[in-house]
Amino acid sequence: MLVWAWKSLIAQRGAVLGGALGIAGSFILVVFFHAVFRGESGQIVAYPEHMQPDVWVMQRGVRNMHMATSSVWDWKADKVADIPGVARVTPILYLNSVITAGNQKSFSFIVGLLPDDHRAGPWEMVAGREVSSQGETVIPDVLSNLLDVSIGDRVTIADTSFTIVGLSTGTYSMANSVIFVAFSDLERILSSSGTYSYLLVDAEEGIDPEALAGKIRREVEKVNALPHEEFVENDFAIAMQMGVEIIFMMTVISAILAILIVCFTAYSLVMRKRRELAIAKALGMRGSAVLFGVVFQSCILTLFGFAIAAVFAMIVIPYIPLLLPQLSLTVAVSELLQIGVTALLVAMVGAIIPAYLVLRLDPATAFNV
Amino acid sequence: MFTLAWRELQSDVLRTLLTAVALGSVIAVVLVLQGFEQGQYHQLERMVLNRKSDLVVTQAGISNFIAVRSSIPQLSRADVEAVQGVIDAHPITAIPIIYEKNNLRTPVYVIVFDTRGGPTSIVDGRDVEKGRDIVIDYALAEKYDIRLGDEFLVTDFRFHVSGITREAAFMMPFAFIGYDGMIDLFLESEIAPDLSTFPLLSYMLVELEPGANRDHVARDIEARVPAVDVFTPEALAARDVNLGRIFLGPIMGLLVAVAYVIGLLVVGLILYVDVRGRSRSLAVLKALGFPWRRLMVAVACQALLLLVIALPVGILIGQLLTTYIHAVAPVYLVRIFEPMVLIKTIVAGLVFALFGALIPVRSLRRTDPSSAFAGA
């Protein structure tokens, strides 16, 4: 029966290819949603991930950076610096805001840097230089293209005008492009003084970051201290969590669509071969064997569609940001495998109606179809 | 040709039904994707308009309600109220927080209000009346299984849920508290020692005297109080929607494009399978002298008829999916019945049908009239 099912598929290559492409399209929708959220979440944590201090210190009750607000008195930075095992403390000021150039706007993640602070600044520059004085800013290269501004042009953040002195790379995200400005400028925008947002703590060699974080929490009042990995994980989780529900819903919707396409294609294949199936039944082929053949066809069709979607995801999706640089897309193999499991379920459910028809097929019709 | 196409569809009702459902599902996916995007913009718009004011005062240089930090000097309230035509300048403060319970974290936009700007769609319970009262969004209540009277912890400060509202915006649920609650939160929680960077007054909702000219009053306020900018609620909402478009536009555009391609493929597949399945009857028509172009018209008619059947099916499936989305994730509003969404989808459906009808052209052209007599 498997041979018959296979040959039957080969004989209707056009229908199989069309059905597989439709199924692939449904899965590609899901893959896109996954890729968009994973890619964007990855970019959202780009700043903390690249800074890589051993420990992050912030206001107690705060556990991440994305969409969070943290405020720590400046004297607490001195207190942290005095703790044995701490090699260096780099404070930053941070604000979620909007950057404006002409009529164009973008969500941004403004980082205020102390004078001569190279520790917490951009990790890769493509043009110009880092911020060295007030009124200067470094913006992502992608953002400069989108806003149509370059070095020497002016942008506005909360009514304060800045001159672009450098372009960084790897710092763009749709939700949070990382913009660097002078600490004093951001202090003025925030109307604050004597406070930092986060402290980047580098430990001396051989010091366990987890133990150091615990020590900071114990010795400095009302601050939270987290090892770098935990801090980045928290940030990534917050970013991804906003997409979890959408991804789940889209997976369900696309799975339903795929089921219907499988069902339609399998139904068409069965109806075209119903006379052959009736003859097979008339010749004594058991119903379960015929049923198995239909499910097999449905599985092959779905897996073919899934394979096309997987190839598309691995080969085409990584190149889409070249056309649309504002998109950050990341495909995770584990997520593809999850979609693969969904594909198997789709194949089974999609085979129900054709299977029902096959089981009801009267062998006598072999002689009068 | 329509009669021929119609009879063809009637010849296998189950198959026509399956086809309509498959095509309707594609239409539903396009509808839901576009409705999702429009829903987010609608939420962004309502976020400002629901605050119910004649004018909105922001920090100078701040022209949005979302994704920004607006901080207005507290003394400027008296200056704004002194402007002719202003009855009252109602204060509100926006505090983004991250709510955490059972290791699940959600960003929440907390709006602190006094006399105006509070929740407008309370579905259960009552408004904020006491210091520790909080009105939370339905999406938040559902996600964390929070009921009226339950505790709601914000950085170790205990609020009590007095009401549940249906107001979310741009992937974030709202929560509303009073100024007494905010001060208690600041003083009793861990925030207190590092208060200096927290805005105590973010926006003012200006109530005007009847007949006062909004533009004139806005200009007068800006002239009198240089630390602020003034917008009509509609203008501020439009700026937020525009910001939302910058964020969502490229993603949704790409996804809708993928859905369009699937639509084309599904229609093409349906018609291709149909033409292959009817190759013998088409050969008869060719043998009778029908040119292949007329047969193409028949296939296009069939595609259009299928579309006519599939459209209501698609709208029905779209509505079912929308109901499902609102039940699973109430923070996201999906508006499939927006006129623009419907028009775009119908036009897209027509394009699916016409371009999909082109896919079986090759098969149609290659149909051999002599095959009509094979096996006869």
Rg over C-alpha atoms of chain B, rounded to the nearest angstrom: 29 Å
Instruction: Please tally the β strands of chain A and state the result.
Output: 12
Order of strands side by side in the largest beta sheet of chain A?
3-4-9-6-8-7
Indicate the radius of gyration of chain A in whole angstroms.
29 Å
Question: Low-confidence segments of chain A, ≥5 residues, pLDDT <50?
Answer: none
Oligomer: heterodimer
N-to-C order of helices and strands of chain A: HHHEEHEEEEHEEEHEEHEHHHHHH
**Sheet bearing the most strands of chain B, described?**
11 strands, mixed
| Residue share in helix of chain A | 40-55%
Number of strands of chain B: 11
Which band does the percent of strand residues of chain A land in? 15-25%
**Class from secondary-structure proportions of chain A:** alpha+beta
Beta-strand share of residues of chain B: 15-25%
| Secondary structure category of chain B | alpha+beta
Q: What does the overall shape of chain B look like?
A: elongated
> What average pLDDT do the residues of chain A reach?
87
Biggest beta sheet summary of chain A: 6 strands, mixed, barrel
Shape designation of chain A? elongated
Spans where pLDDT lies below 50 across 5 or more residues of chain B: none
Q: Nutshell version of this structure?
A:
Chain A is an alpha+beta fold and 369 residues long. Chain A is built from 13 helices and twelve strands.
Architecture blueprint of SSEs:
The complex is a heterodimer of chains A (369) and B (376).
Chain A: H1 2-11, H2 13-44, H3 46-51, E1 55-59, E2 72-73, H4 74-81, E3 86-101, E4 104-113, E5 125-128, E6 136-140, H5 141-147, E7 154-157, E8 160-168, E9 177-182, H6 183-190, E10 195-196, E11 198-203, H7 209-219, E12 223-227, H8 228-272, H9 274-282, H10 287-316, H11 320-323, H12 333-350, H13 352-360
Helix pairs in contact in A: 1-10, 2-8, 2-10, 2-12, 8-10, 8-12, 8-13, 10-12, 10-13
Chain B: H1 2-11, H2 13-49, E1 55-59, H3 76-81, E2 86-101, E3 104-113, E4 122-125, E5 133-137, H4 138-144, E6 151-154, E7 157-165, E8 168-169, E9 172-178, H5 179-188, E10 203-208, H6 214-224, E11 228-231, H7 233-277, H8 279-287, H9 292-328, H10 339-356, H11 361-365
Parallel strand pairs in B: 3-9, 5-7
Antiparallel strand pairs in B: 1-10, 1-11, 2-3, 2-10, 4-7, 5-9, 6-7, 8-9
